[in-house]
């Protein structure tokens, strides 16, 4: 995608102006919101972090992060969401506002969105969807395992076959998808506990909680252990 330098500068200036609005209004500080080695059958996959190649979905992951509201286009709505969270630290008002993942929403996040302004989703992109995930189950995580779940979204209109794809955390836990096709625009929740699989909900079957709040990362790999997406849990 060719970038217009003049438009880029204008977008950054506009974003900074939007970001200044809550500060001018004396709004209270906004506070609302790697890589591990995956294992399958006790064996470490070869080069699990970067995978044998960096093509397909991983090539657009950073651009997808600029799509803050998850509507498959980077536009003024994404700039506005980041601006509304400007200077915030975790937990952010909007979970995706920290576009570059450095733990604070600032001008670097605005620049990241401005630099990818106008980008749209390519076909067949399945990503971690923080907005519909629940990493911290109500009450005791270990006593409420079905309410701990991570969500994955197909960002395109075409079906995506994610059979034999893998989900891992930073501590060596691995889930492998059964035969499963995720419809275009649809999401599926992967629950930690035991349950009956359906078209919208899958179950890991674990006896203890998987996700460590504030000290864990979701890794999504395809069937060949090529890294597709990551999400650091705030």
Care to describe what's here?
The chain is of the alpha+beta class and 234 residues long. It folds into 2 domains: 5-33 and 50-115, no CATH class; 126-233, Immunoglobulin-like (Sandwich), CATH 2.60.40. It is built from 4 helices and 10 strands. The chain has helices spanning 5-24, 61-66, 76-84, 107-115; strands at residues 126-128, 149-154, 160-161, 166-168, 174-176, 181-182, 187-191, 201-203, 216-221, 227-233. It has a 4-stranded mixed beta sheet with strand order 1-2-7-8, with no helix packed on it. It has a 4-stranded antiparallel beta sheet with strand order 5-4-9-10, with no helix packed on it. Strands 3-6 form a two-stranded antiparallel ribbon. Strand 4 (166-168) and strand 5 form a beta hairpin. Helix 3 (76-84) packs antiparallel against helix 4. The longest helix has 20 residues, at 5-24. The two termini are 31 Å apart. Residues 20-60 have low confidence and may be disordered.
Topology:
Elements: H1 5-24, H2 61-66, H3 76-84, H4 107-115, E1 126-128, E2 149-154, E3 160-161, E4 166-168, E5 174-176, E6 181-182, E7 187-191, E8 201-203, E9 216-221, E10 227-233
Parallel strand pairs: 7-8
Antiparallel strand pairs: 1-2, 2-7, 3-6, 4-5, 4-9, 9-10
Helix pairs in contact: 1-3, 1-4, 3-4
What's the N-to-C terminus distance?
31 Å
Helix content: 10-25%
**CATH class call of the largest domain:** Mainly Beta
Q: Which architecture of the largest domain does the CATH hierarchy give at level 2?
A: Sandwich
**Strand order across the biggest sheet?**
1-2-7-8
User: What profile does the largest beta sheet have?
Assistant: 4 strands, mixed
Which range does the strand content fall in?
A: 15-25%
The CATH homologous superfamily of the largest domain corresponds to Lamin Tail domain
Strand tally is 10
| Computed Rg | 18 Å
* Structural class estimated from helices and strands: alpha+beta
CATH topology type of the largest domain: Immunoglobulin-like
Helix and strand run? HHHHEEEEEEEEEE
Mean of all residue-level pLDDT scores: 76
How many helical stretches? 4
Poorly predicted spans? 20-60
The domain tally reads 2
Shape: globular
